[in-house]
Each structure stands twice: as structure tokens, then as C-alpha cells.
Amino acid sequence: MISPAPVAVVPPLGLLPLARTAVDRGSDRRVAADLFEQIRANPATRVMYLAGGKTLISDTEVVLGPVPEAGFGEVPVYLGRTLADAQEPAGTDVVLITLAQEDPELENDGARWASLREVAVALGELDAALFVEAAAISNWHAAHTHCPRCGAGTVPEQGGWVRRCPQDNSQHFPRTDPAIIVAITDPQDRILLGSAAAWKGNRYSTLAGFVEPGESLEAAVIREIAEESGLTVHSPQYLGSQPWPFPCSLMLGFTARTEEAEAAIADGVEISDVRWFTREELGTAVASGEITIATGISIARNLIEHWYGGPIKEPEIEARP
Fold first, then answer.
1. How far apart are CA 51 and CA 164, in angstroms?
2. What pLDDT digit, counting tens, does each position of 205-229 carry?
């Protein structure tokens, strides 16, 4: 039985590029020991390939191909059933096959290998949902091949959504690391942006950090901002979230206020510089190329433009002769 399409609940940030849902992940079907045998026999079943974080893209669509003669491989993952008619009819089963490297023989009809960062904004709802899900679960399998208790090699079960240790019979499930990301404003309604020490160029974004064990989201907002900028913030307000499978984060977007703008100072470890911007100052700095800001697929860009009041114009790239 296919689960009904979820009722859309749109957060203040709107429908973020990586937070679109168009797949019934079929958790009730994963428990069937013969799941892959069942769907392999169905000619309507489709497979999605992933290699090094890239999948096959044709124009602006993820390539979903027929089941190969060799089957689904060693670690297939059941991604679920499509919820609406798109390139495939609603109810189509989709299985992820992860390859050790890109296979040129699959590049038919102009298809190319592309990463999620490259194509996310251009993808439709179904393709974006499949790519995010596939990237996240593939990353988990690659990093969790052995039991954390005894070190024995684990085996995938339940459609690829559980790994079991054959030595102690423990089950291990995919992990997601929650991280807060915050648009901080001051009494003048300026926004604070920071430049990470690891970034090249003059790139600025909203401040962010991982939630620690035993910590609420609001407490993480206050702690992380104090650590990275020296500011005391208050009134954290949740605006929206989206998965960030690089490799396994869930980004939770907030706004917060500070009354002590002049106290802002970069920690010098994670953050090399912090700057306050009015809307005019930020628009001018981005348009002139003085600074760059986060890309359109990120929740950071959406937080910034939510404060800004609309899209921020970037420099036009001159066509090469």
C-alpha cells in the first residue's frame, strides 16, 4: 500500500531546495526479507546510480534506468515509491545502486555524472528528493561498514536501511547530525555574516554549528554564536530546515537577536572574520564582487534573503570569446 502524499506544511523560509518530498520511503516494506526479489521481477522498477557522490543527469532530470541483468549489486538501497507522476508513473519502485566509480557505459543519450551541489536547484521535486535521500544513505553505508561495538563487518538488511553485526546481532541505523544555522540581527536590523577560516576567497555566510548531546536547539544557538562571534544572543526563532547530506547533517534555520553589536569578534579558529551589513551594504558588496555569499541550494542563502526581503543580485559573468 502506498502512503498518501503528505500535507504540505510550508515553514517561514518556504520550500527549501533540498527539503522537497515526493517519495514514499516504504518503511513498512523494508522488513520483507525478499523485498529486492519482489521488485526485481517488476519491469516497472527503476534504478538510480551513484558513484563518488554523483548520479547520472540528463538535462535537468535524474536518470532512472531499468534493472540491470546482473541485479542490484552488493549493497542496494530501497529508496521507495514515487508519489506523483513525473518521469515515471506514481507508485514506481526506485532502488539505489552505488558504484565504485563512474561507468561510461551508462552515459547514454547525453547523460552526464553530476553532484547534488551542481544540479539541486534545477531539479524537480521528485529528482531532488531522490538525490538527497540517495546521497545521505550512501554516505552512511560507506562510513559504517563495521560494528562500533566489536569491530566485525556488518551486513545490510531491511532494504539497506539497517546494518546488522553477525557477531553480536546488534542493529545499526543511519545517523543524522543536527546543526543550527542562524541569521543574527542587531537593533539597527543589520545582519551578521562570518567568513570561515577554511574558506578560500572573500566568502561570507550565516554562523552555524552542531548541536551537542543533551542540548536543545535554542541552547545550541546561544552557545555556538557566543563561541564563534563573542555575542550574547536571545529570542531564537525557528524558520525551517533541510537535509544537508555532506555527509549527514540536518540544518535547522533560526533567527536570533543581539543588543551588543559592537562586541562581535571572530574566534580566530573556526571563523576568521565577522561583519555587520545593512541591506544596502550587503547588496552592494555582493553585486560588486567584493564578497560572495552562500549558494542557492543552502539554507544559509535562504536565511540571508529572508532577512534581505528577496533575491540578492550577484555579478554577471562575462561571456568568454
1. 24
2. 999 999 999 999 999 999 999 999 9
Tens digits of per-residue pLDDT, 157-210? 999 999 999 999 999 999 999 999 999 999 999 999 999 999 988 999 999 999
Residue whose C-alpha is closest to residue 203's, from 293, 68, 295: 293
Determine which helix (DSSP H) or strand (DSSP E) holds 301, and give its type and residue range. helix 299-308
For the record, the C-alpha cell of 228 comes out as 564563534
255, with CB counted inside 10 A (0-12, 13-18, 19+), is: buried
Rounded to two decimals, the pTM is 0.91
Cα(302)–Cα(4) distance, integer angstroms? 29
Which pLDDT score is estimated for 108?
86
> What is the C-alpha separation between 253 and 239, in angstroms, rounded?
5
Phi and psi at residue 93, to the nearest 5°: -75, 135
Per-residue pLDDT tens over the stretch 2-18: 555 555 567 899 889 99
Do 60 and 119 meet the contact criterion of CB atoms below 8 Å apart? yes
Supply 286's cell numbers.
555582493
CA gap 207, 274 in Å, rounded = 9
